[in-house]
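I am still getting used to backbone structure tokens and would like to learn alongside you. Label the sequence line and the structure token line clearly, so we can match residues to local backbone shapes. Would you write everything just below, so we can both look at the same thing?
***
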Amino acid sequence: MVFWIFISLLAIQRVIELMIAKRNEKSIIKQGGYEVGHSHYKYMVLMHVMFFVSFLYEVSYFDKELSTMYRILLPFFLLTQVGRVWVIYSLGMFWNTKIMILPASQIRVKGPYKYLKHPNYLIVSIELIILPLFFSAYFTAIVFSLLNIMILSIRIPIEEWALQVHAEYQHIGSNPLRAMRALKKD
């Protein structure tokens, strides 16, 4: 019962996020923006859908129960949820599941983006480990963490390349704090 409540809440959360992303995508396109890297996007979506399928199957088929480690995992999971909201709020209309570029806009370096270039990817990576561990779904945790690494090894370089249309992004390099100082000088 706990599992089905848990998975239902996650599914609702993902649907809401997709609705936000679609709304933001339409807004960016209306303003002259465009998508980059769409050829890999379908694989990323497939990986996330298959994550849920694998998670559901592993827990249901092997009759897994809530892990005894849930008390340790819960604070980390709650932190990822706070981080997820912080990321979406910080990027506002620029948050998306796709790589959307609006050349006339400025790069957002606020919220968690002051400290990391890609905090959303870190949050998702942590979730792909924590969620299955709640129910001892080790196969799902391992396989989809590895698949996520593969997807991100394609996605992050594409996103980095795409963001070079923004002159100020070139200042960011690997140090977002240096970028903040550079942006404040402009």
